[in-house]
Structures are given as C-alpha cells and as structure tokens.
Amino acid sequence: AMGALTVGIVTKPFEFEGRQRLRHAEEGLEELREAVDTLIVIPNQRLLAVVGDDVSLLDSFRMADEVLLRATRGISELITVPALINLDFADVRTVMAGMGDAIMGTGEAIGEGRAIEATNQAISSPLLEDVSIAGARGVLISFTGGRDLSLREVSEAANLVCETAGPDAHIIFGAMISEEMEGNLRVTVVATGVGSREPQSRRAIPVEKRVQEPQPVAPSDDWDRPAFRRREGFLPRWKSGQGSSGNPGSQPGTHPGGNPNLNQKQETKNRQEVKNRLADRPKTKSGRDDLDRPTFLRAHAD
Length: 302
What we know:
By secondary structure, the chain is an alpha/beta fold.
C-alpha cells in the first residue's frame, strides 16, 4: 500500500520433514507472492546435493544461511556501495518491481578464465530454486574486482548472461573496484520474472455489465392508433387474450377482470363520455366549434 519495493528471500523445508509441512510452506509461498514484488526461494533439500557426507548438520544449515546472507547483502550492496558504474535504487526497482519469482546467484573466481567461471557459478547456483534465467524479463549484473579487472572480462561475463537470459531481457549492469578483490572477480546476478509464473501485479477483475433494454412508455398495440384518437380515451383500450402466461391482466393492456364483454362496454362508455364533454363545450360566435382554426384567429373573430 505504501509503494515500497518488497523482496522476499525464503527457504523451503526438507522433504524428510513431511509432505504436510511442505504443503503448508507452498501455501505460504502463494500468499507471499501476492505481497512482494520479487521472491527468491532456496530449498533446503538442495543442501544434500552440495554438501559432502562428512559435513555436519550444523555446518549444512550454516551453508544455507550463507546463501541467504549473500542474496540479501548482494542486493543491498548494489544500492548502497559506491561503484565505478553505479547501480542505484531506480535500477533495482526497474528490474524487481512486480516481477514475481526470481533467482539470485553469486560466483567468485581467480586466475585465467575467471570471468566465465564466476558467471557460470552465479547463474547456476545449486542452492536456488529449480529455475533458469532463460526467459527472464529483468537481469541485474554486478561485477566486483580489483584494479586488474579488464573490460574484456566484463564483456565476456555480460555476454554470457545476455545469451542465457534471452534477447528480450532488460539488463542493467554495474562494476565496483575494491582493493581487497585484487586478483579475484565476483559476479552477482539477479534475474527476475523467471519460470512459468506471471508477475504478481494487480489485475483488473472484469465486471459483467447488463444493459437493460428500454421499455415502451405505452402499450405497443396503442401506437397503431392516430395521436388524436389516443387522446380521446383517457383510459387504455382493454383487450383480452394477452399475456405470455395466458392469464388476462398479466400484461399492461389487459383489464384485470379479463371479461371481453365488460371491457368492450367500458370502452364504449368512455368514448360516449368524451363525446358528451366535447358537445358541452361553448361555441364561438359563429355558432360552430371552430377549434380547427388557430387560437389567434378565433380570438380575432370573437
């Protein structure tokens, strides 16, 4: 609601912890995806693939914590640490805002070919969720090295990421020089909008609109009569046999009684009353009903 960029970095339980616990974790992830811009998931089960048989349980969990630390620190350092080619908060927001699932990896290498080796480590971390940066919509690349970091190494690493992500990815990169990294090269890659999931953006819910058809202001059968004939009778002409259900009086033009003879008598009576009222109107001086003449002519004649 406040518009803050929100990045979630979480772990999933081991398989031996039971299906119910894993199911609860999956349900929690679905709810979390609705609340964050980007979500990085690290399955604990992947520890079994990267640790040796002689690694203790405590050290194994420390390895998972180290991955979480690198992911969190890697994103924050992109914004807070001054660099030769800076990546500011606007760059991070561009790549991460509303992008859904993401992966983040960090690789470090020394010696000849260190750029390609460090990049491969970053884009294929075994501890990250089983997704690839292929098809990613946004990619952040950060290079950290000593003064011996060359333009060729940056170009090789960036090209490898671009080729893997695809031509449609929005790629932003930065570079930082550190005296402590002399001889080493660290590559940090954040790829967002990966996998088959759509970004968790707010979707408009279509609303079905029902348009009410206009209703006639008078019974449709009455429009066949001339206007002056309709004005003669102040009550509608009652007709029998109307109504979709066969019940007289179910339509507006049907008298509630439903008796054709009574309806006809009532209509005749109404017509006679109108004629009587017309006959009782005062005549003009000429002795005739001159209502067909315009008012100003009749007034002049009087």
